[in-house]
Specification:
Blueprint (H helix, E strand, L loop, with lengths): L18 E12 L2 E9 L10 E2 L2 E3 L6 H13 L6 E6 L3 E2 L4 E10 L11 E8 H6 L3 E8 L21 E11 L2 E4 H10 L5
Parallel strand pairs: 1-7
Antiparallel strand pairs: 1-2, 1-4, 2-3, 2-8, 5-7, 6-7, 9-10, 10-11
Length: 197
């Protein structure tokens, strides 16, 4: 009766509520060594202007994550698909707010520093070995459940004094020259750097 569970692959509860974005960690070979290219988001963007990030964006409904990574990289760095060598997927990030970011590693070929000024204000590169040899600084945000005003406290033990779970959210910072690489970008990089060898 329950034999179908023997071959079922579990999924995360409420996975269908995830808002999925995708990034590509772009490698560029320079002077015989790999560097990682970063973008600085345009100040004209409404969401996170001026932030340092990887090429990427929201996955469209009919796209795979890989297609999103390639499309967004082409749009933001003004390259063609044939100039992107995708090596594979890395570990994804899931935020406390159900935002999932799928991650790919790729290499840009024939790249000459161009970018779309609508989305990017500047780019810079950091040697891959910097991240392989440097630990980020760690800071923490407190995370706590905050029920909305219409929450039915009268239906739960303890009412308004219910002992909601509390936690800490780690925020990472890398400092390279005059650039601060932090937050989700730093976390994605730190947790995947061991796979980029």
């Amino acid at each position: 009766m329950f034999d179908h569970l023997n071959t079922r692959i579990p999924k995360r509860i409420e996975q269908e509520k995830e808002k999925v974005s995708v990034v590509l960690i772009p490698l560029i070979k320079k002077d015989g060594k790999y560097h990682i290219l970063f973008e600085i988001r345009s100040n004209n963007l409404s969401h996170q202007p001026g932030e340092i990030c990887f090429p990427g964006g929201k996955r469209e409904s009919l796209e795979t994550s890989l297609q999103t990574a390639v499309r967004e990289t082409c749009e933001e760095l003004l390259v063609s698909e044939s100039d992107i060598q995708v090596y594979g997927s890395l570990d994804y990030f899931l935020s406390p707010t159900s935002m999932r970011i799928d991650v790919y590693l790729g290499e840009l070929r024939n790249y000459n520093g161009q970018y779309s000024i609508d989305e990017v204000s500047d780019i810079f590169m950091v040697p891959l070995e910097f991240f392989q040899n440097t630990l980020p600084k760690r800071y923490y945000n407190n995370v706590q459940m905050q029920p909305e005003h219409d929450f039915p406290f009268d239906k739960i033990p303890g009412g308004r004094n219910y002992p909601w779970a509390k936690g800490k959210y780690e925020v990472l910072f890398y400092e390279y020259e005059n650039h601060i690489i932090w937050g989700i970008t730093a976390k994605i990089l730190f947790h995947n750097i061991k796979l980029i060898q």
